[in-house]
Amino acid sequence: MTSTKKRKSAPSEKDRAGKKQKLSESARNTPVARKEEPAFPRGGASVLTPLEQKQIQIQAKNDVLFEQSTGKKAPQNEYENDENDSDLLNKPDDTALKLKRRPRTKSKPGHAAQTSGGKRVRVEGLSYKRLVPGSLVLGQVAQINQYDVALSLPNNLTGYVPITSVSDQLSKKVERLAEQEVEDDYTELGDDDSHITGVHLNTYFAVGQYLRAFVVATEKDASNGTKGKRHIELSINPRQANSGLQPSDIIDDTMIQASVRSVEDHGLVMELGMGEDTVRGFMSSRELGPNVDLPQIREGAVYLCLVTGLSSNGNVVKLSADTLKAGNLKKGHFLTNAPNID
Description:
Elements: H1 13-29, H2 50-70, H3 94-100, E1 112-115, E2 118-121, E3 136-144, E4 148-153, E5 157-162, H4 168-184, E6 210-220, E7 229-235, H5 238-241, E8 255-263, E9 267-271, E10 280-284, E11 302-310, E12 316-320, H6 323-326
Parallel strand pairs: 5-7, 10-12
Antiparallel strand pairs: 1-2, 3-4, 3-6, 4-5, 6-7, 8-9, 8-11, 9-10, 11-12
């Protein structure tokens, strides 16, 4: 029995056409894979074109010549990439830092600083070092003690007004009390002085009251060339609080300090500390402000007053101690014209 081998017949043209059709249909149904560029090409091939390589070489030569001639680092060109440079990843950009930094100009305190727009005056804040005797400050009554009054000053400073630096009327009253006590050995006073039974500062001032103060001293118990303790002594006496003012400087809507010289039926006769013969003040009972009664006011009390007008001859100044009136912005009680700028 002989083995017979079957010969495979060659594919016909119809079979070949059917296979091609099937391949084309499968290619249509399958998605086309995106051809990605290799991240690291083999054989050391460069991703740069020959023209770009030539431009980089020329730029490198120019940078070397620039650094040798000027001694400065060459500016960055368009072919340098900081993101791919490992040496510059953690290094801050010097150009950005220079743009952010502003030049600092040293100027002495209190002096004018030169700017592009002109001169600018620097106003310093009030501090203990800048507070010198002879200065005028605005304070508010914070505490009333037996022998002095504590005034709250700007920037958390506190000054003290002794009982002898309030007004001339109160100082005379204290002197009379001291003399009478020495003579009578603390006995009762006569009928003429029966209204002087003592001095209580809480009847002369109110907490929250604004006053203009004159700085007398900033140290206490300084002797034998030693430095004393910090203690701001103030005076609210109109003679010192109005220092520098002349009668010609008093105009409408100015603020002036005055002490009560006498209590009258319809108002108060005020002393401005400029001399009795030159000018004096008068305050009507209607200008005392809210919650203030005329019989409660004592001679020697001090008020920071608003000038509301002058008499025909200019010797009497009309005053107002109403803080609501002085602070009313709608009526505009603020200075618009000044006789001088001193």
